[in-house]
Design brief:
The protein has 300 residues and is mainly alpha-helical. It has a domain of 186 residues: MetI-like fold, CATH 1.10.3720.10. 83% of the residues lie in helices and 0% in strands.
């Protein structure tokens, strides 16, 4: 009887300890959620309150303001262009360094950390000084085509094109690190050699084998770049380009309630982008089977 009672009580004590641990986890999760949601809720209430109760007039003012749609579309276009260009430049370069030039990895790590050491204001004034006064450099970069195609001095200062290039520079740390970590996580050299032995070329191997295996890292890098560009203020302000963060800053100086509503809208847009990217990573038809087939081929 005593032994039976012990056998019965033992699972009860384990279950009790499990419930206690689960309760602590729930408390911690609730505290984290409150820490994240209470400021957003306070901002939402402040944006809707006008002193006489809840009023949605601020959102009507936001959506009817032509500067809202203009700056939002401009920032969205700059973010897409910067994300596409950065991923397009960094991904093949990181793969080539990982495969052919492993000794160049310290230099790549250094170059990826340089934007952290250079403040945005210094970068902006440097770009303005170089491309605003030194047309000889532009002529050299264009291989002498600019003087032939244009009779007027070619100016790239205070243009979205130069701003995109600046965004590419400041986004390098956020793009290189996730992609490089994913390339190091998979057996890049073995997968590439297996593909070469089956008759695949460099670009075909990169697009059909390497990219599907490092797609989560590429999408994470794209998300970080997109979020950085959408919220960047200093470079756009110094370049004189009226983007959404500048519009949000100007609105906050004139109407605090409208600025609070804009903050909630920008958070919702960012959340939608994050959820879309998460769904894009998880919903990949046949990705698991493709990775298994690649591992089998590499093992052979």
């Amino acid at each position: 009887m005593v032994q039976a009672a012990r056998n019965i009580n033992l699972p009860i004590s384990k279950d009790r300890s499990t419930r206690q641990g689960f309760g602590v986890d729930k408390v911690v999760l609730i505290l984290v959620l409150l820490y994240l949601t209470v400021p957003l809720g306070a901002t939402l209430i402040f944006g809707l309150s006008t002193g006489n109760g809840i009023n949605f007039n601020t959102y009507h003012q936001v959506f009817t303001d032509p500067d809202f749609s203009q700056t939002l579309l401009l920032s969205f276009g700059l973010a897409l262009a910067s994300t596409f260009l950065t991923v397009l430049l960094v991904t093949p370069t990181a793969y080539w360094v990982q495969l052919r030039l492993p000794r160049a990895r310290p230099m790549m790590d250094f170059l990826a950390l340089v934007p952290f050491a250079v403040p945005a204001i210094v970068m902006a004034f440097g770009l303005i000084e170089v491309y605003g006064t030194n047309n000889t450099l532009i002529n050299i970069i264009s291989l002498g085509l600019v003087p032939l195609l244009s009779n007027e001095p070619f100016n790239v200062v205070n243009t979205p094109q130069l701003l995109v290039c600046a965004y590419v520079i400041i986004s390098l740390p956020f793009v290189f690190r996730p992609i490089d970590n994913n390339l190091r996580a998979i057996n890049t050299k073995v997968l590439s050699e297996a593909a070469y032995s089956l008759g695949s070329g460099w670009w075909r191997t990169f697009l059909t084998i390497i990219i599907p295996n490092i797609l989560p890292g590429v999408i994470s890098a794209a998300l970080l770049t997109f979020s950085t560009v959408m919220g960047e203020f200093t470079l756009a302000s110094l370049f004189g380009i009226y983007t959404f963060p500048i519009y949000l800053n100007g609105t906050g100086q004139n109407d605090a309630h409208k600025a609070a509503s804009l903050t909630i809208l920008s958070f919702i847009l960012t959340l939608i982008c994050v959820l879309g990217i998460i769904l894009l990573v998880r919903i990949r038809p046949g990705s698991r089977g493709k990775e298994d087939r690649l591992d089998i081929v590499a093992a052979k």
